[in-house]
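#lab-general

N.A. 3:47 PM
ok so I finally got the sequence cleaned up, no stray characters, all 113 residues accounted for. can someone with queue access submit it? mine expired

B.Y. 3:52 PM
send it over

N.A. 3:53 PM
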Amino acid sequence: MSPLLFYKCLADDTRLKILLLLVSHTSLCVCDLIDALSLSQPKISRHLAYLRKCNIVQAERRGKWMYYALNNALPEWAFSVLKTTEFANQEYVKEANSRLKNAMSTNCQDSSS
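B.Y. 4:20 PM
back already:
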C-alpha cells in the first residue's frame, strides 16, 4: 500500500472516525457505525466500500449483518499510524464512542428477530 493512497483514504472525517472506532473496537456492524456516527446506512456503506477498495478494512457476513474490521494484511506502519492517532485523539471520537457504547447492547442482535 502506498502512503499516498493510505492518507487519501483517511482524508475524510467519516472514514477517519470509522477507522479510529475499528482500532479500539476490533470489529463493528454497519448498524453500530450508523448509531455511533449518526449517519444514514447508505452514507456509512459508501464510506466502507471506499475503505474496502483501499484495502484498509475487510468485511465478514454474520447472518444478515456485515461486520467490518481493519484488514489483517494492513502494513504495520499503517496500523501504527491509526493506533497512534486513536490514542492521541480520544476527544475526536469521544461522542461517537459514547453513542456506540449506548447502542451496542441493543443493536444488531435485537434487530434480527
